[in-house]
Amino acid sequence: MGTSGVQGTSDVQAPTVTLNGNNPASVAVGAVYSDLGAIITDNVDTNIGYTVSLDNATSTDLSNLVLDTSVGGTHYIVFTAADQAGNTGTATRTVIVGDGATIATSTTPLDTQSDLTGQASTIDTTSTMDTATSTPIITPIVTDAATSTATSTTP
């Protein structure tokens, strides 16, 4: 329990942190994210500021917040405000970049696979991007080593 800025008043209630905008918030991969901030209210004190922390990093001013949107994933921004009596209020915004899933990539290409006869087949893949859904479209071209014919399949 602390004493607030108002003479002789005991302040035991934490400030209320109300987020502006959507929670969860969404942003496209590669787009710039700008947070809309928060409004802080307290039963005793006025003009209370706040700090933010991205994914449990060091707290900073909202103007210094930089969220990496180059990769899909989910991030958490914690808003923290403290009144003059030392009571602390928090609110957390979830920010979903892309679909929220981190995209796994492989540096080892799949270039051969056995067909049903046990013979190796060569797989040549080409990919394009469906710009409406940001989903890669991969079309394998399979060459059977036994017959040396190529066929293209579309999923």
What does the model show?
The structure is a single chain. This protein is mainly β. The protein has no helices and twelve strands. A four-stranded mixed sheet has the order 4-8-7-6, with no helix packed on it. Strands 9-10-11-12 form a four-stranded antiparallel sheet, with no helix packed on it. Strands 1-2 form a two-stranded antiparallel sheet. The termini are far apart.
Topology summary:
Blueprint: E1 2-3, E2 10-11, E3 16-19, E4 25-27, E5 38-41, E6 51-54, E7 73-82, E8 88-97, E9 112-114, E10 120-130, E11 135-144, E12 150-152
Parallel strand pairs: 4-8
Antiparallel strand pairs: 1-2, 3-5, 6-7, 7-8, 9-10, 10-11, 11-12
Please summarize what this structure is.
The protein is mainly β and 155 residues long. The protein contains no helices and 12 strands. The relative contact order is 0.18.
CATH architecture of the largest domain: Sandwich
Helix content: under 10%
The count of strands amounts to 12
Which strand order do you get reading across the main beta sheet?
4-8-7-6
CATH topology of the largest domain: Immunoglobulin-like
Output the keywords.
155 residues; 4-stranded antiparallel sheet; single chain; 43% strand; Immunoglobulin-like; mainly beta
